[in-house]
Amino acid sequence: MPARSPASIRDKLGAIIDEIDRTGHADLLRLTVLKRWFAHPARLYAFGLWVARQAAARGETGGVRAAEAGPLFAQARALLLETAAAGGRPDWSGAERLYRCLRAFQNEFERQAWGPVRIIRNHDLYLIEAGLALYLALRPAPGDGYRLAADYCGHYSSAYGRDLNGPARDRLLELIGFITAQEAGEPG
User: Fold this and answer.
1) What is the pLDDT of residues 157-177, one digit of tens each?
2) Residue 70 C-alpha from the chain's centroid
3) For residue 179, which of 152, 155, 156 has the smallest C-alpha distance?
4) Positive or negative torsion for Cα 146, 148, 153, 154
5) Which among 16, 55, 57, 168 is placed 20 to 30 Å from 127, CA to CA?
6) Which structural domain, as residue segments, surrounds residue 177?
7) Does 3 reside within a domain?
8) Are 49 and 89 in contact (CB under 8 A)?
9) Within a domain: residue 1?
10) Which residues are paired to 180 by β-bridges?
């Protein structure tokens, strides 16, 4: 019997999408398959930048502290989307400055029985912040990439709680598109 070739990361993510199609959801922990893929540092940094750009493009300024969120999204779009359109990477010091502003904007903690919990009032701003942390190598471990992927793809529904359901399917398809493009641009 010939040896089977290992499944690619795209195949594994495709299997997660199939499970969502079959059952309506999949466990967020299924995304741990990304840790091995993120072991290549360039992939981790590129993923952080990609998520930050996705969140900046889609970001909504409604809700709590909307008047303050609007200028942050404007800064993020200027830094991330304009450089993407020009085919480049954002200015390092500008990215670091934006990261600090985003971190300060949502730096509220609530004391819980098990310890302090950070309050995130705008998920897209959080995704930009976390993506910039990967891009700037402030969080350089493959597990950090997995956590960002879970935050990016995960969705809450009353039927399943927070896991891969509903809009998560589309996010996984976007992720597969990113992975395909990233691997195509890597040398041999």
Assistant:
1) 777 778 999 889 999 999 999
2) 20
3) 152
4) positive
5) 16
6) 9-184
7) no
8) yes
9) no
10) none
Task: Give how far Cα 136 sits from Cα of 16, 38, 45, 99, Å.
Answer: 30, 15, 7, 9
Residue 4 covered by a domain: no
Q: Which two tokens stand for residue 30?
A: 């299924």
Chain position carrying tokens 């072991």: 39
Place of tokens 């502290």: 65
CB 165 within 8 A of CB 155: yes
Task: List pLDDT tens digits, range 104-153.
Answer: 999 998 999 989 888 888 999 999 999 999 999 998 899 999 999 999 99
Total domains in the chain come to 1
How far is the C-alpha of 138 from the C-alpha of 16, rounded, in Å? 29
The pTM of the full predicted model, rounded to 2 decimals, is 0.90
Look at 22-36, 57-71, 169-183 and tell me which has the smallest mean pLDDT: 57-71
